[in-house]
Design a protein that fits this description.
single chain; 192 residues; mainly alpha; 2 domains; two-stranded antiparallel sheet; two-stranded antiparallel ribbon; 5 helices
Length: 192
């Protein structure tokens, strides 16, 4: 049964609000709540509040803790590696040769794509950690550097001596991995 806001329960149920009933001052006696203002949103109830699982742990000044930053960056690495793997599999299934002719013939294997993605992600993480240690503008500087690296990484994929399917697959892989790493690492960085 939901309240009307004036301290009396209403006959019509409002699915987003309900009488608290958990605090002593909100206990219902003879169908009338003891105190007004005891109606609250269902989303505020711990059972229904899923944001507690999605939010980062914070310390007393509102900064994400080191543990939550590490966890979020590990999630970013896994997501980037997964994105690279999925795009490689799609490109391979679509018939892209995934072979580049530079100083001989280089075949782009699934393992090579995954390891390259992991190494790029770890390098980005390392740079971000250094910036967090030595500057207060870590998020801003890291985002600019990562964006520049992503743009520079596209030139070899676009101008490579390869089939169009290979170029499209490699470009999509670079963009997806870059987007995941930039967005999630930036989100995990300290606030300025």
């Amino acid at each position: 049964m939901a309240g009307t806001g004036n301290g009396t329960p209403s006959a019509k149920r409002n699915d987003s609000n309900f009488l608290c009933g958990e605090r002593p001052e909100c206990q219902i006696s003879s169908g009338v709540p003891r105190a007004t203002g005891c109606v609250y949103n269902v989303a505020d109830h711990p059972v229904f509040n899923w944001s507690i699982f999605m939010s980062a742990e914070t310390n007393s000044v509102g900064q994400a803790s080191a543990g939550s930053r590490v966890r979020n960056r590990l999630i970013a690495l896994v997501a980037a590696v997964a994105a690279a793997g999925v795009i490689w599999l799609i490109g391979n299934a679509a018939g892209a040769a995934l072979v580049v002719k530079q100083n001989g013939v280089t075949e782009i294997t699934l393992a090579g794509a995954l390891v390259s993605t992991l190494m790029a992600g770890l390098a980005g993480w390392g740079l971000l950690a250094l910036l967090e240690r030595f500057t207060t503008q870590d998020r801003k500087i890291w985002t600019y550097v990562a964006g520049a690296v992503l743009l520079l990484s596209l030139f070899p994929t676009v101008f490579a001596d390869a089939t169009n399917g290979t170029r499209v697959t490699l470009t999509a892989m670079h963009l997806a991995v870059g987007a995941v790493l930039i967005l999630l690492f930036r989100r995990s960085a300290r606030e300025a």
